[in-house]
Amino acid sequence: MKGTNLGEFEELLLLVVASLYPEAYGLAIREEIKESSGRSVAMGAIHAALNRLEEKEYLKSKLAEATHERGGRRKRLFTITSAGKEALENNRSLRNNLWDKIPQLSWKNVQYASI
Amino acid sequence: MQASEPVHNTPPKLAVRFLRWFCNERLVEEIEGDLDEYYQLYSKRHPKWKAKIYYWFHLFSFLRPYSLKNKQNSKRLIMFRNHLKFSFRYLSKHRTNALLNIMSLSIGIACFLFIFIYLDGELSFDKYHEDSDRIHRVVIDLVSDSGRTPDATSPPALAPALLENIPEVELSTRVFPTWGSKYLIGATQENQFYEERIYRVDPEFLEIFTYKVLLGNRDELLSDPSNIVLTESTAKKYFGEGNPIGKELTIFNRDNRKKVVSGVIEDVPFNSHFTFDFLTPLHFADRNIDENWGWYNYYTYVKLQDGSIHADFEEKLQPLYLANNPRDSISPNITYSQPVKDIHLKSALKWELGTNSNMSNIKIFVSIGLFILLVSLINYLNLTIGGLVRRTKEAGVRRSFGALRSNLIGQFVTESLTVVIISLIIGGILAEIALGNLTEIFGREISILDPSNINAFLILAGCALGFGVLSGVYPALYFASLGEIKGMISKKKGGFLDLKRILLIAQFAISAIMIVGTMVVYQQLMYFKNSDMGFDMDQVLIIENADVIANQQTLKERIDQLSFVASAGFSNGVVGGLNWTFTLGYPDGFLMNYAVVTPDYLEAMKFEFVAGRNFDASIESDSEGLNLIANESALKALNLKPDQVGESVPMRTNRQDSLIYGKVLGVVKDFHYSNFKEDIKPYAFFYRTEPEDNLAVRMSSTNVRENLEQLEAIWNEMTVGVPFESYFLDQSFAELHRTEERLSDVMLYLTLLSIFISFIGMFAIANIVIKARLKEVAVRKALGATTNQVVNMFTKNFVLLVVIANIIGLPVAYITMQEWLADFSYRTTLGPTLFVLALILTIGLAYLIVGMRSFKAATSNLTERLRDE
């Protein structure tokens, strides 16, 4: 099924949401991504992806209490679902399997830096 | 809540409203919250404008289907993206065309914006006062045997009489300027400046003219004769940032009067017909001016009662004047009023308080602005229409694939809007750059980012977008009406071509008119500059306020000793500036302009004597008062022949009705002492030995800076703390022609632009025409036509268009410019050279541009063209 595959950005988002628990909301996620990966992402893009992940039921969300620095507006806190966790684990085991299958020989001709 | 609560920065309001408008209700709260928090974070670390830009950026990133209010939009969104993609593809395929189109449209938009904003400023004069439509100026035209002289001034008795006798008048005030004399004013001995923008006014002045009061109590600003009110920047100049209320300013003259600062008001806005730095109550300790109907050196303003009828007020003015001036009843002066809002644009009386604009220059600006916009719109139409010919096929294919009429409209509108929006942005930037660089020409700083000018941009954007939509809808409907099959097979060029020709002719007619117009204005300007003034104003320095030095003879002797000084002399007025007048002549009196001078002044200014002699300091009778040196006009007005110089002639009667005789000692050639719009009138010089305020110094070397330093050194030795103020006479004369100079500058730029745009248009049309006939060219060449013949085939058509355009445009230019020149008493003549030049210029350029393009076509690889298909 098409919906079960995780894109690279989606995977990153799921991981960040999980790591930020219980304070994972739009802006915090953006800042975390910026800090850990150096990628500066438009907020609309993050919201759109979160929305999509929620539709796929990898994430669930609820509105939290209002705080002052948001001008009294509530934020939507995201938490990962069991389906989301499963998808992440699938991705991870798929990668691990592939990593394990790489014969040592194939690294031989790869140079890390060309001078 | 905690005391140390951080400040909450408000994000841009417009952005928030926009978000609420488009965003889905379910998501809007969290998105708004996230954006807000982001803004707080960002505005702490970065400047505000940056934070705002980033806010907008992130806001736009939310414009995605999932967050939109109405999910059904998304289908349209997809179509829109598709249209946009096709638009960009089409534009980049026909790159030259698109580029030319955008270039000319944005130049047109820039010009229009530029002129619109300028005009908006001109039309806003004196409208910022509360109830400005109830404020009027009352003026009295002076009537004498020689005719009616319009005059802005009135006697001091007028204002109180108006208030007392005319029920429509609610308030009245007099304004008494300094009439060119300068006052040395200082807060301390060190901090002194010469000031002349001081108005002595009645307390009602500030009730009629509602300037914002920044410090002080509005009702008491002018209540005491010792009060003085400063404008904001003057207050800063004398007192820095501190509160000046209650501080003293000293006016350094004979009795060193002290004034107490009672208030600070806003600086007089640029759009005022008068301007001042100081206001102080009109008050004479030793006399009552309220009954004085004889001095014409005040200005009178009134505010009418709410609801009163202006005509009722107007008809009471002349009777009031006559009642108070019964002696005048034979040929009385004429009293009337002017709405204060109209003064800047329409009033051109003698002794205006400032330099007013004039309607004809403004009309010229506006018509040029419209012309250029028209020229660029024509380009746009021509290029779009020209492009349409090759799109019939595309439209046919679209239709046969099932595109509805609305789809076609969507495609064409998106395309034309893309071009219009890009042009709007570029045009806005260009206008801003132009406005920034042309401050000098307009005499004030203008920016389209100024909130008051945003409207101009919005109006223009509205019009341009409307235009864009129309120019997209029209061809779409045209193609839709052709039907599928017909569209694909149609080879007909359509009625478009004729329209295109007419538009090209219109464009070039406009260019021809502008070329002639610019040349005429420039020629008139050169005429001012090169004509014989009647004296030599180069290298003459005027030192002001020379009367502060009691011993003028010593000053002159010391200055004469300087090696670079050719000659120097004193006068009480400056040619080209203000001068005094009085009535002279017998039996018929006339108005004589005059200046009191020393003999060496006439030498220093190099007036040309045609008869008689200069004053002589050793002849005592020369300085007695009625012995004068006249210009030729004055001699004529006195009914004298040049050979009567030196004879005693009756000049006027005195109180006992006995005649007073005077003598004309010498006659100088007529000279220009005012701008070229005015005739040379009678002018006389008198000689007296008392101190005069201006010292004219003719210098023989051009080392200006060093010379000025030496003069200033002498000045500083002979005075205590009085600033040295001087200017060159040719500069002050240039000032008289500033309006024409500005006009000529602006017209030059705008004409170059309009020519540029017209030729962009011509090039683009030539491009389309030639491209469509490339195969024909190849066949002709293959059959033996020479390159020359091919080039001629194309150019002859375009040159013909330009000739027709000139035939239409040149007579229009002739009539318009004749009318413009009629304002000047001294003017250049419109020779045929100008018109021939305009003709040659336009034809030459057309030949060059079309010729080049067709030459390229004629010499390109023929086989390529023939192999095609």
Number of continuous helical runs of chain A: 4
Distance between the termini of chain B: 80 Å
Helix content of chain B: 40-55%
Give the overall average pLDDT of chain B: 82
Strand order of the largest sheet of chain A: 1-2
* Count of discrete domains of chain A: 1
Cα Rg of chain A: 18 Å
End-to-end span of chain A in angstroms? Answer: 45 Å
Largest interface: A-B, 21 and 26 residues
Rg for CA atoms of chain B = 35 Å
Helix-residue proportion of chain A: 40-55%
Structural class of chain A: alpha+beta
Which word captures the global form of chain A? elongated
H/I helix tally of chain B: 27
Quaternary structure type: heterodimer
What class do helices, strands and sheet pairing of chain B give? Answer: alpha+beta
Instruction: Sum up the overall morphology of chain B in one term.
Output: globular
Largest sheet of chain B: 13 strands, mixed
How many distinct beta strands of chain A? 2
Q: What report would you give on this structure?
A:
The complex is a heterodimer of chains A (115) and B (869). With 115 residues, chain A is an alpha+beta fold. Chain A has a single domain, classed as Arc Repressor Mutant, subunit A (Orthogonal Bundle). Chain A is built from four helices and two strands. Chain A has helices spanning 8-20, 26-37, 43-55, 82-101; strands spanning 59-66, 74-80. Chain A has a two-stranded antiparallel ribbon. The mean pLDDT of chain A is 83. With 869 residues, chain B is of the alpha+beta class. Chain B has 27 helices and 24 strands. The longest helix of chain B is centred in the middle third of the chain and has 35 residues, at 496-530. Chain B starts with 12 loop residues before the first helix and ends with a helix. The relative contact order of chain B is 0.09. The A-B interface holds A 25-27, 30, 42-45, 47-48, 51-52, 63, 68-71, 73-76 and B 5-6, 8, 27, 29-38, 40-41, 57-64, 66-67.
